[in-house]
Write a structure and sequence with these properties.
The chain has twelve helices and twelve strands. The protein is an alpha/beta fold and 330 residues long. The protein folds into three domains: 44 residues, 434 Repressor (Amino-terminal Domain) (Orthogonal Bundle), CATH 1.10.260; 130 residues, Rossmann fold (3-Layer(aba) Sandwich); 129 residues, Response regulator (Rossmann fold, 3-Layer(aba) Sandwich), CATH 3.40.50.2300. α11 links the parallel β8 and β9. α2 packs across α3. The termini are far apart. Pfam families: LacI, Peripla_BP_4.
């Protein structure tokens, strides 16, 4: 069996102290750049792996954060996770990722598992089924810091990092109105999820402030996936007739609506699609969507920096809403 390489083994080989080796591996400024490079090279050659368990027992911190998201195969969450991982890596934190698959029971299981793993903090984007913050009470009772990002609760006593959903949606719908669209339908999310509620509110505000020639609201509620967009667009046609434009609560919902049009020989040129969120895939569409582009990577970075700040605070942090600015991509 291969022997576990210890700090003392590296120290003996390089004729350094164990403390110096430890500092070099952590890029401590007390150690010269040349020595750091030499220590890391020997550590790699010897197959050294840091003992994270021992470190956590000594510091009473695991240097680990838990991140829970609804889905990974999503145009929004992938760059957000990139932002979290890169920021965490720069701060010497490990990330444990849990994917709830929009299932509140699985979300609860992930929370409990991560608390049992003694994570130092949690970053959570809730499922579309999660209607209240009751399940996060245990996190507070255990003294673990938690920050919501993208999807969360504004009134739950936790910091919430999000995009300015209402005003961004309003700006996007007003752009459609200014282009001459009078019959604008909304493929909405659920009101129990704040992003759905706020984006719908922006849509309604834009319509109410427009001229009297506008058609009234045409709203169908559903989830945030392509399937929801497909089924939702069919309901729009059945309940309200063919719209001039649709505002989709997410980019995948917009893709679902487009798929329905293609399957049922509806010309995409006849219906303008505005989506909250975008994708690199958009430029490959014959008729690209108008997108409300979210600062996804920045959202991940800001979320990690905030949870790190709260985890390291010597006083109880004051919960706050941090809103980032989206940009309309015409």
């Amino acid at each position: 069996m291969k022997k576990n390489v210890r700090l003392v083994d590296i120290a003996e080989k390089l004729d350094l102290t164990k403390v110096s080796v430890s500092k070099a591996l952590r890029d401590h400024p007390d150690i010269s750049s040349e020595t750091r490079k030499r220590v890391k090279k020997v550590a790699r050659e010897m197959g050294y792996r840091p003992n994270l368990v021992a470190r956590s027992l000594t510091s009473k911190k695991s240097q680990t954060i838990g991140v829970i998201i609804p889905k990974m195969a999503n145009y929004f969450f992938a760059p957000v996770i990139d932002g979290i991982y890169n920021a965490a890596n720069n701060s010497d934190y490990e990330v444990v990722l849990g994917i709830s698959l929009e299932d509140e029971k699985l979300e609860k299981k992930h929370i409990e598992s991560m608390l049992n793993m003694r994570v130092d903090g949690l970053l959570v984007s809730i499922t579309e089924q999660t209607k209240n913050a009751a399940r996060f009470k245990i996190v507070r009772e255990m003294g673990i810091d938690l920050v919501f990002f993208d999807r969360g609760f504004s009134d739950a006593g936790f910091t919430y990092i999000k995009v300015d959903d209402r005003n961004s949606a309003k700006t996007g719908v007003k752009y459609l109105i200014d282009r001459g669209c009078k019959k604008i339908a909304h493929l909405a999310g659920y009101d129990s999820v704040e992003i759905g509620k706020e984006r719908k509110a922006g849509y309604l505000e834009a319509l109410s402030e427009a001229s009297e020639e506008m058609s009234g609201p045409a709203i169908v509620y559903g989830g945030y996936s392509e399937k929801d967009g497909y089924l939702g667009f069919e309901k729009i046609l059945n309940q309200y007739g063919k719209p001039e434009a649709i505002f989709a609560v997410t980019y995948p919902v917009g893709l679902g609506a487009l798929e329905y049009m293609n399957d049922h020989k509806i010309n995409p040129n006849d219906i303008t699609i505005l989506t909250f969120g975008g994708s690199e895939f958009n430029k490959h569409l014959v008729n690209p969507f108008i997108c409300i582009e979210q600062p996804t990577y920045e959202l991940g970075t800001v979320a990690f920096r905030q949870i790190e700040k709260e985890m390291n605070s010597e006083i109880q942090p004051t919960p706050k809403i941090i809103e980032l600015t989206a940009k309309l991509n015409r």
